[in-house]
Amino acid sequence: HYPQQSHPGIHHKAYHPDPELLYHDTGIDYNHVLMNRNASVAKLYEDALRYEEGTIISSAGALVTSSGKKTGRSPKDKRIVDEPTTSGDIWWGPVNTKLSEHAFLINHERAVDYLNTRERLYVFDGYAGWDPKYRIKIRVVCARAYHCLFMRNMLIRPTDDELEDYGEPDFTILNAGAFPANRYTTGMTSTTSVAINFKRHEMVILGTEYAGEMKKGVFTIMHYLMPKAGVLSLHSSANQGQEKDDVTLFFGLSGTGKTTLSADPRRHLIGDDEHCWSDKGVFNIEGGCYAKCIDLSEEKEPEIFGAIRFGSVLENVVLDEDTRQVDYKDNSLTENTRCAYPIEYIPNALIPCMAGHPKNIIMLTCDAFGVLPPVSRLTPAQAMYHFISGFTAKMAGTEDGVTEPEATFSACFGQPFLVLHPTQYATMLASKIEEHKVDVWLINTGWTGGAYGKTGQRISLKYSRAIIDAIHSGELKKAEYQTYPVFGLEIPKAMAGIPGDVLNPVEAWKGVEGKKEFEGTVRRLAELFRENFAKYADQASEDVIAAGPKI
User: Fold this and answer.
1) Would you please indicate which residues are annotated as catalytic (active-site) residues?
2) By CB neighbour count within 10 A (0-12 exposed, 13-18 middle, 19+ buried), where does 184 fall?
3) Residue 179 CB-half CA count within 13 A
4) pTM for the predicted model, two decimal places
5) Which residues have a Cβ under 8 Å from the Cβ of 171 and sit 6 or more positions away?
6) 470/476 Cα distance (integer angstroms)
7) Which residues does 164 contact at the CB level (< 8 Å), separation at least 6?
8) d(Cα 367, Cα 369) in Å, to the nearest integer?
9) How far is residue 202's CA from residue 524's CA, in Å, rounded to a whole number?
10) For 550, phi and psi rounded to 5 degrees?
């Protein structure tokens, strides 16, 4: 480590908000430390390389860093403060765990004491939401240059004029992730704590340096504030065709192809993960993208590969000691290797990231049971049923020898980030679909002709792309349809370039034994859907309940 040095030709921009007010609000002593507000990329690189052990630059110019012991989110350690002004709105249960106001203040004090004893602090003032009418001001206070650069990429960066007139933030994130929570504080289950207090407009992070906690924390905040403003928040990617009214939303959990299928060189990318749908149209929440890097290649995903350059942050990747070239196949540190980069690094990004109302909504699922059709047209009630269900399937781990697929249900295709009851988001979505006459499609990018690990084959990516192209061209809307048994889905009878036994899974399972196994598997999956939906049935309408599978 070297002492802080200043180049004689550098002009320093002072940071002079009202320190008394800030101190009173958050407890951070902005006068006590060397303060860096909205520092440049170059300055953050310098500090990360100088003060943060193990930080290096890749051959492509990206900042390579480590998030420490935690290489993913800690959902079991997420808390929301139980206080009178918001408690009645929140969906308490498996996702949102209560934390007392007193316990939050203990964690807050712990974070503030840690941050105030650092030699230098970083502040980034940015925005969440591209629509100026609905955007909220987010202030991030952290002790690592890596965290500041990450949020500089992921939030919307203010212009110099906007920064000068920024004023007070709507929400402040205090990231003291290098310092642990006290396990004996009431409500703590480990040394990690990610807590949101809507009354104080604060988020406090202790015991994890994984930067994704800040990104998803902002998303959680938007999932509460936006519906209150009459705006629907969605875990989705979005793109736009050459015409302004040709907008598509893609819902899907990890591994379903949400990022891959929304990255289309013939269409403009609005965003890859988090969006809002207002009375004016769709807007991205973020100013950047947070892409998975495992097995990344220039051939498969050229836009993402090209975005990894100076200004981007690479997390937990392995690289060659001499050449500094990243080995994207190496998962020895984690399977969850990631890169955060500004959205303008994607060549066909739509800036500002705002568009009109969607024409199509595509719900993606990766069905490892091999029974859902590659494409189905959904009725409004079915759209609500599948949105609330949020189904995909993952392959069970091989360590115990299990090869059976495992059903995963994540309400609204983003259950870990929901704050209100899932049916509240679903009701808002239903009214918008009806108002704007949106076509809704369910696309299975998983298996057909059998289950994963048995006789099944993965549905070819070229078929999935062809289906999406046919949706965008309007060809699929004109097709002739038939009803798929048990699930009651409308599937096309024929489609150019796609074999009939791919379009209809009944035909894909071959032989007498195959047909018998197919019927049993369909019933089993239908039963899993029904069991899961029972959790929401008390707040769902009769037509939505009736839109589920019938055994």
Assistant:
1) 73, 216, 235, 254, 258-259, 273, 338
2) exposed
3) 21
4) 0.91
5) 136, 137, 138, 139, 201, 202, 203, 218, 221
6) 5
7) none
8) 5
9) 44
10) -120, 120
Q: What are the structure tokens assigned to 471, written together?
A: 């949706």
The CA-based angle 249-252-258, given to 5 degrees, is: 70
pLDDT of residue 32: 61
> Any alpha helices (H) in 27-144, and if so which ranges?
41-51, 101-116
* The two three-digit tokens of residue 328, written as one number: 């994207």
The model's pLDDT over 95-144, given as tens digits with 9 standing for 90+, comes to 999 999 999 999 999 999 999 999 999 999 999 999 999 999 999 999 99
Q: Can you tell me the distance from the alpha carbon of 317 to that of 337, in angstroms, rounded to the nearest whole number?
A: 6
Instruction: Compute the residue count for the chain.
Output: 551
Fill in the amino acid letter for 512. Answer: V
Residues 426 and 383: their CA atoms lie apart, in Å, by 9
> Do 384 and 421 form a contact (C-beta atoms < 8 A)?
no
Q: What is the dihedral of CA 330, 255, 420, 354, to 10 degrees?
A: 90
- 332: Cβ contacts below 8 Å, ≥ 6 apart: 318
331 within 8 A of 218, measured Cβ to Cβ: no
- Whole-number Å distance between alpha carbons of 371 and 70: 36
- Computed over every residue of the chain, the mean pLDDT equals 91
Q: Coil, strand or helix: which one is 398?
A: helix
Q: In which element (H, E) is residue 25 found?
A: helix 19-26
Distance CA 423, CA 219 (A): 18
Of the candidates 493, 263, 232, the residue with the CA atom closest to the CA atom of residue 387 = 232
H/E element holding 123? strand 120-128
Q: Which residue has the tokens 């749908």?
A: 277
Q: How far apart are CA 39 and CA 151, in angstroms?
A: 12
Nearest to residue 539, comparing CAs of 417, 363, 388?
Answer: 388
Paired tokens of 76: 């079991």
